[in-house]
Amino acid sequence: MTPITEVEGRRVALSNLEKVLYPATGFTKGELLHYYATTSGALLPHLRDRPVSFLRYPDGPDGQVFFTKNVPPGTPEWVTTAEVPRAEGPTRMVLVQDLASLMWAANLVTEFHTPQWVTGAPEEADRLVFDLDPGAPATVVHCCEVALWLRERLAADGIEAYAKTSGAKGLHLLAAVRGASSERASEYAKGVAVAAERALPRLVVHRMTRSLRPGKVFVDWSQNAARKTTAAPYTLRARAEPTVSAPVTWAELAECREAGQLVFRAQDMGARLQDYGDLMSPLLAGTHAAELP
């Protein structure tokens, strides 16, 4: 029998709590749900009003992993949804607006991915994002060097960037923007990525071509497209261990000498939030949003 828990007045079914999702560490589904519940204060503001894509891994990272964009079958009627335009026609997607809907979604065992716009304005970017992906033997240490260069380049245009680990191998840089279409944001981001490759030719590549990427950092600017999504801050990832896409300080990037320094797991995040709060909270205020040049 599936346990029913009341969350903020909503009845939420939470199943298979003892199921081990991450065999390398013994991390269970119950621990995953506990993680999302205890980090909800930081996570929810980054999900709110954004149609969420779920990268689901119900049997752990070694099982089937698949994207769910449409409203999943069996979604409770109290979960907020929104119509989202697509090239093939409009569809309905989930909005994770509160703790109850977060816990319902977390019970599906998921990474949370969001676009760089909010519902109601699907072609208007309010975020700029760069995904820094190292090609072996490059590591996140090399991503840090690139991130620091990008920070200065963006600052020259009046854009303040914030960094987080991807929760996998690399880094994400985000900035709040206003008054730009997704197409314009993509165009600007591509220009910055090209400039990074010119400035750091031995370290950076701006094209996705696999043969160009070994030993370099791919500066992926394409996630600014309206149809693309990026792993949300604080989401768990479907990796060998329960790693988190964790916001980090610029000092941590400047001081990084080994890849392990920037690996954060679910059990690390309580202390980080206590010490730092939400390092990406300025993205939410709107006061730090910049116009693209």
Automatic annotation (TrEMBL):
Keywords: Ligase. The keyword Ligase applies. Signal peptide: none annotated. Gene3D superfamilies: DNA primase, PRIM domain. Residues 28-279 form the DNA ligase D polymerase domain. One of its GO terms (molecular function) is ligase activity. InterPro entries: LigD_pol_dom, MtLigD_Pol-like, NHEJ_LigD. It comes from the Bacteria. It holds the Pfam family LigD_Prim-Pol. PANTHER family: BIFUNCTIONAL NON-HOMOLOGOUS END JOINING PROTEIN LIGD. NCBIfam families: ligD_pol (TIGR02778). This is ATP-dependent DNA ligase. It comes from Streptomyces shenzhenensis.
